[in-house]
Specification:
- The chain has 392 residues and is α/β, with parallel strands linked by helices.
- The chain folds into two domains: 330 residues, Thiamin diphosphate (ThDP)-binding fold, Pyr/PP domains (Rossmann fold), CATH 3.40.50; 48 residues.
- The chain has 14 helices and seven strands.
- The strands form two sheets. A five-stranded parallel β-sheet has the order 1-2-3-7-6, sandwiched between helices. Strands 4-5 form a two-stranded antiparallel ribbon.
- It comes from Agromyces tardus.
- InterPro entries: Alpha-ketoacid_DH_E1_comp, DH_E1, PdhA/BkdA, THDP-binding.
């Protein structure tokens, strides 16, 4: 790997830059500052974290395969980022609200989103897969960084209502260069909104390395907005859980927002329409495979005396069940009625939408007319060619 490759993907990061409780081989690192935030995480809780990461990786691979088989239009893989998502989402309370981009499938899993609800958007069967207020999670945001504004607005409202619930905005490293994210940081800091900005720095904004858009760690950008920024090893699920709990607790106590940079790596393509081999090296990928978040936690559990084979069997059984549910749910998703595209676009009817609905209805009617004309022509032709019809 060349120095430029390492700089581009964050491999030059010094160990003391990151909060890390589990090393790459599963060794436990003590931290006087962050150990108290995970003091309640016993072996059973660690096993749950391991199982959840295995399950979401399997769901991700199944969805990728389904896209290749023509069952989904597109899929944005999360492989490699399981610890960042599972660790942070585990820290959330039921009344907190998550605002995500299009890659946080693991967050959705922990918020109770069914696999078929997760896939319906990518199949083109629905504009949104679930009711956000039932899951306390907004549907995935495709517009880069827009969810940061949504999270800030929700958090400001929660503060005005006097609750201690908090919001978390998930976005990638590329989104930090978007105006929406920076505007959200300004508003959140100005109003001390109870929101955590959770940046998954996975090394690449599609094909552009993070080092191209930022010559400093992304967490340092928080300094200019007057909020704390913290960098965490995003492949260490225990450390991610600890720092997210810290940030949420701070928000609940009225101390305002915080910015977390979870340094991780996107193992697969940006989406299934992307070819990462065009812009990154095999050595780069191999180096990050050694930091795999699932392997790391499994090694830690084995070092604590747990039966690694039993862990694997339990996690695989759970993953098999989830994968079967995903495939069964996918084929049961009904095709939407064409005119349903106009449902739930606005809270109230308006003439602009009515005009579009009318135009689209007349456009669809053209095909009905064409089919009717074709049927009439086929009937006439059949009569003309049928000697019993006497049309000749």
């Amino acid at each position: 790997m060349t120095p430029s490759d390492r700089e581009a993907t964050g491999l030059l990061t010094r160990p003391d830059d990151l909060v890390q409780l589990l090393g790459p081989t599963g060794e436990r690192h003590a931290s006087a500052e962050y150990d108290p935030w995970v003091a309640d995480v016993d072996d059973d809780a660690l096993v749950d974290l391991h199982r959840d990461m295995v399950v979401v990786r399997r769901l991700d691979s199944e969805a990728t395969a389904l896209q290749r088989q023509g069952e989904l239009g597109l899929w944005p893989p999360l492989a490699g980022q399981e610890a960042a998502q599972i660790g942070s989402a585990t820290a959330l309370r039921a009344d907190d609200f998550a605002f995500t981009s299009y890659r946080e499938h693991a967050v959705a899993w922990l918020r109770g989103v069914r696999p078929d609800e997760l896939l319906s958007v990518w199949r083109g069967s629905a504009a949104s897969g679930w009711n956000p207020f039932e899951k306390n999670m907004a549907v995935p945001q495709i517009i880069i960084g827009a969810q940061a504004l949504h999270a800030t607005g929700w958090a400001m409202g929660a503060k005005w209502e006097g609750t201690d619930a908090a919001a978390v905005a998930y976005f990638g490293d590329g989104a930090t260069s978007e105006g929406d994210v920076n505007e959200a940081l300004v508003f959140a800091a100005s109003f001390a909104a109870p929101v955590v900005f959770f940046c998954q720095n996975n090394g690449w904004a599609i094909s552009e390395p993070v080092g191209l858009q930022s010559h400093q760690p992304l967490a340092r950008r928080a300094d200019g907005f007057g909020m704390p920024g913290i960098r965490v090893d995003g492949n260490d699920v225990l450390a991610v859980l600890a720092v997210t709990r810290w940030a949420l607790d701070r928000a609940r106590r009225g101390e305002g927002p915080a910015f977390i940079e979870a340094v991780t790596y996107r193992m697969g393509p940006h989406t299934t329409a992307d070819d990462p081999k065009r812009y990154r090296t095999d050595d780069d990928l191999a180096a990050w495979r050694e930091r795999d978040p699932i392997t790391r936690l499994r090694a830690h559990l084995a070092a604590r005396g747990l039966d690694a084979d039993a862990l694997d069997a339990d996690a695989k059984a759970a993953a098999d069940r989830a994968a079967a549910e995903l495939r069964a749910g996918l084929v049961s998703i009904p095709d939407p009625e064409p005119m349903s595209a106009f449902d739930h676009v606005y809270a109230e009817p308006n003439s602009h939408l009515d005009r579009q609905r009318d135009h689209y209805a007349r456009y669809l009617a053209m095909f009905d007319d064409a089919e009717a004309a074709a049927a009439d022509a086929a009937g006439t032709g059949a009569a003309a060619s049928d000697p019993r019809g006497g049309a000749r």
